[in-house]
Design a protein that fits this description.
The chain has six helices and ten strands; from the N terminus they run ββββαβββαααβαβαβ. It has about 210 residues and is α/β, with parallel strands linked by helices. Strands 1, 2, 3, 5 and 6 form a five-stranded antiparallel β-sheet that branches. A five-stranded parallel β-sheet has the order 7-8-9-4-10, with helices on both faces. The radius of gyration is 17 Å and the shape is globular.
């Protein structure tokens, strides 16, 4: 069992408060939508949860199978999908994933790369250079990158924004599998239907 909790979490930029006194808990096998108007702090909260940004106040605690993950290791336990994450456009999808796998020293990386490329329905373009891809295809590579290390936490920031109907169905399938595998799933979204598909909902603006 895994848990991701925040204790009196707060973030401000100058005099502008995004959120404060945020005490929330996410648990394995459950999905939570993070909602709020544009600019309300959804993506900022996702970055903080992923360990990519230090909050102004409070802390985030990740427990994996009963063991607390040290803060600097938290990004390696989170599979993050977000539009601001870069894909190496001079590489192929396979080369992008191989670069990540080598950097993380993942075992059996060739087998795992094949698995995630199949999961995002990109095996047929695995060896094409990424700079020929549409925005939706780039998003599929970001999703594959997030799944590669088999993380206990999936953080999905606007995961379907650039995807077609088949891509949206693919993301829903990935979320369903992640929940069956007892992962924590967190989705930051502006899409009402996407939010309603989650078990729980957190409005960032409730913490002003």
């Amino acid at each position: 069992m895994h848990s991701l909790t925040t204790e009196r979490l707060g973030q401000r930029f100058g005099s502008r408060i995004l959120f404060r006194k945020m005490n929330i808990a996410f648990h394995s096998g459950h999905s939570t939508a993070i909602v709020g108007s544009n600019g309300s702090g959804k993506s900022t909260l996702v970055r903080i949860l992923a360990g990519l940004m230090r909050p102004t106040k409070g802390e985030v605690i990740l427990n994996v199978d009963g063991n607390e993950v040290e803060g600097e290791w938290r990004p390696l336990s989170c599979g993050l999908v977000a539009p601001y994450l870069n894909v190496y456009e001079d590489f192929t999808p396979r080369e992008n994933l191989d670069f990540i796998a080598k950097a993380r020293r993942l075992p059996h990386r060739e087998i795992r790369i094949e698995q995630v490329l199949d999961e995002v329905q990109m095996l047929h373009r695995a060896d094409d250079v990424v700079n020929t891809f549409s925005s939706g295809m780039l998003q599929r590579i970001r999703i594959a990158s997030a799944l590669l290390a088999d993380p206990p936490v999936l953080l999905l920031d606007e995961p379907t924004a650039t995807l077609d109907v088949s891509g949206v169905e693919m993301v829903r399938g990935i979320i369903d599998r992640a929940l069956k595998e007892e992962r924590i799933v967190i989705v930051a979204t502006n899409e009402p239907e996407e939010a309603e598909a989650c078990e729980f909902k957190i409005d960032v603006e409730d913490y002003r």
